[in-house]
Amino acid sequence: MDDDVKVLLIEDDAAAAEMYCLRLAADGYTGCHRTRWRGRFWRMASDEVPDFIYLDLRLPGLDGFEVLERLRGTRPTTHIR
Q1: pLDDT tens string 14-67
Q2: Whole-angstrom Cα Rg for the chain
Q3: How many angstroms separate the CA atoms of 68 and 19, rounded?
Q4: N or C: which terminal CB in the chain sees fewer CB atoms within 10 Å?
């Protein structure tokens, strides 16, 4: 890829997160940042402003659709798909 694409991976399973980041790297993406902690991914999404977010919809104690709604309703992350 010509430009670095920042990817934020929100996944509670460490093995799955590693597999997804390895797959993204094999496809040429160099900026895979992963987290599984609620407080941290809100901060990372706002501060890092990734180009796209890979979101696990079944997070413990938190519905992925609620996360998506909040991300879309927050100014720095409204554009992310």
Answers
A1: 899 999 999 998 988 878 888 877 678 778 888 878 888 888 888 888 788 888
A2: 12
A3: 22
A4: C
Total residues belonging to the chain: 81
DSSP H helices, the chain, are 14-26, 38-48, 64-73
Instruction: At 57, list the tokens.
Output: 């919809």
Mean pLDDT of the chain: 82
User: How open is the CA angle 2-26-14, to the nearest 5 degrees?
Assistant: 120
**Euclidean distance between the first and the last CA atom of the chain, given in angstroms as a whole number:** 19
3-state secondary structure of 24: helix
Cα-based distances in Å from 76 to 34, 41, 47, 58, 67:
18, 13, 8, 24, 14
What does the block give as tokens for 16? 């799955």
Q: Give the pLDDT band of residue 81 (cuts 50, 70, 90).
A: low
